From TrEMBL:
Gene3D superfamilies: Aldolase class I. The gene is tpiA. It is found in: Cytoplasm. Substrate binds at N9, W10, K11, G173, S212, G233, G234. One of its GO terms (biological process) is gluconeogenesis. It comes from the Bacteria. Involved in the gluconeogenesis. Catalyzes stereospecifically the conversion of dihydroxyacetone phosphate (DHAP) to D-glyceraldehyde-3-phosphate (G3P). Pathway: Carbohydrate biosynthesis; gluconeogenesis; Carbohydrate degradation; glycolysis; D-glyceraldehyde 3-phosphate from glycerone phosphate: step 1/1; Carbohydrate metabolism; erythritol degradation. One of its GO terms (cellular component) is cytosol. It comes from Kangiella koreensis (strain DSM 16069 / JCM 12317 / KCTC 12182 / SW-125). Belongs to the triosephosphate isomerase family. This is Triosephosphate isomerase. One of its GO terms (molecular function) is triose-phosphate isomerase activity.
Length: 250
């Protein structure tokens, strides 16, 4: 049985007053009896502030990105060890915005996944196709190539430490969500692809869906057999929406 994970990706949003109010809503309303894991990924600079607001509530912390280097003269970069040192358990790797806006290629993403694992963080490896790729019928090819870059670099066993997030690029921040059937089709194909390499890992790995998930569509998406949670952008900045999704996950 895979425990569901509901992860909020705040992207480059927030300020101390905004975060204080968002976290107040979450810590007051998130029931300790929730079985799902809840995670927030604030902008790096706010991670210690969010950690102080979480206190002993059952909310995990994650980074949105990390360096592929361990340490050194890399101005502006943040290492996996630094995230770990500041209370993070997770880090998002290879988000489509990093891939498209910052030129992160599959090989670099694979390096970052490796660095996250070395720092004892759980990487959330984002994969997904653009609208053009979907329309050309190459969705699974693209997703498999993104997964295989990590498997080729680190070996299939590394995926024991990884969470995958299937995020169709056309659904991120657009308000257009993949239908539950479209999402399930890709999630199940990802699991089948991994099953060929290691059946146990395929069975145990969490595969999150991301792309305009909100309270109104979460129930149907999270009911799909191969969807193990959500990576949520816009709706994670609204306490009521995010809490509602966490409650739907159960
Ligand atoms: C994301 O950025 O990972 C994401 C899924 O964003 P949104 O929920 O806003 O589509």
């Amino acid at each position: 049985m895979r425990t569901k994970l509901i992860a909020g990706n705040w992207k480059m949003h927030g300020s101390k007053p905004f975060i204080e109010s968002l976290m107040k809503g979450m810590t007051e309303q998130l029931d300790a009896s929730l079985e799902s894991d809840v995670l927030v990924c604030p902008p790096t600079i706010y991670i210690p502030f969010v950690e102080s607001l979480i206190g002993d509530h059952k909310i995990a912390l994650g980074g949105q990105n990390l360096s592929e280097q361990a340490q050194g003269a890399y101005t502006g970069e943040v290492s996996g060890d630094m995230l770990k040192d500041n209370g993070c358990q997770y880090v998002i790797v290879g988000h489509s915005e990093r891939r498209s806006l910052y030129g992160e290629m599959d090989v670099l993403v694979a390096h970052k996944v490796g660095k996250a694992i070395e720092s004892e963080l759980t990487p959330i490896l984002c994969v997904g196709e653009t609208l053009e790729q979907r329309e050309k019928g190459t969705t699974m090819q693209v997703v498999q190539q993104q997964l295989d870059a990590v498997i080729d670099a680190l070996g299939i066993d590394a995926l024991q430490q990884v969470v995958v997030a299937y995020e169709p690029v056309w659904a991120i921040g657009t308000g257009v969500t993949a239908s539950p059937e479209q999402a399930q089709e890709v999630h199940s194909a990802i699991r089948a692809h991994l099953r060929d390499k290691n059946a146990q890992i395929a069975e145990e790995i969490k595969i999150l869906y991301g792309g305009s998930m909100k309270a109104a569509n979460a129930e149907e998406l999270l009911a799909q057999p191969d969807i193990d949670g959500g990576l949520i952008g816009g709706a994670s900045l609204k306490a009521d929406e995010f809490i509602a999704i966490c409650k739907i996950a159960g």
